[in-house]
Amino acid sequence: MNWPKLQKVIFMIFLVLVIGLFLGYEIFGKGFDSEQVRQYLKTFGIWMPLIFVIFYTIGTIFIPSTPFMAIAGVLFGFKYGLIYTLLGGFLSLMITFTISRKLGQEKIENILEHKYLKHLGEYNKKLERSAIGDIIILRITPIMPFNALNILMGVSKIKTSDYIIGSIIGLIPSHLITVYFGNIISKIF
């Protein structure tokens, strides 16, 4: 099997995994017990922040980040919970973005050349020129799941630097609110 075909197969497997696990979480994850996760993480002692960031980074590739953010507020308080979730969120989005960019961008660019997808192709070219504002808005508004945006931007022409800047700025509001909520919960209970 040559590299372009293998690349396409790997990218499709990646997409199926991300979408499948996200849907599985949406269907079966309502019984997600954040207290169990919290108790498990406490067993790591001084390594707990590092383990949390690793869990957050890998976990949020496949499932929503909100439970992790709330747990961070409970476990680490507002300041450190915010730092750890922003770090994990950034690592997660960069992994997904990079995999999508390396494995899917070329194929998507070929698809966007089709005459019926002309408008999407034009928007893709616009993203190449300047996209920080678009990313900030897409991150702040709950229009699409976190990883759907990571994958879409990975296969787009957006500059990596624009994606990073827009994502970091756009991540802050949801992380502030959710980690703060988790911190308040820990003070009440």
Features:
mainly alpha; 189 residues; 8 helices
Offer a concise description of the structure.
The chain has eight helices and no strands. With 189 residues, the protein is mainly α.
Written overview of the protein:
This protein has one domain. Helices cover 83% and strands 0% of the residues. The protein is built from eight helices and no strands. It has helices spanning 3-28, 34-42, 48-62, 66-111, 118-129, 132-140, 146-155, 160-188.
Question: What fraction of residues sit in β-strands?
Answer: under 5%
Shape: globular
Specify the number of helices.
Answer: 8
The number of domains is 1
Radius of gyration using CA atoms only = 18 Å
First-to-last CA distance: 57 Å
Helix/strand order: HHHHHHHH
Helix proportion range: over 70%
SS class: mainly alpha
Q: pLDDT average, as an integer?
A: 81
Give the SSE map.
Elements (H helix, E strand, L loop, with lengths): L2 H26 L5 H9 L5 H15 L3 H46 L6 H12 L2 H9 L5 H10 L4 H29 L1
Helix pairs in contact: 1-4, 2-4, 3-4, 4-7, 4-8, 6-8
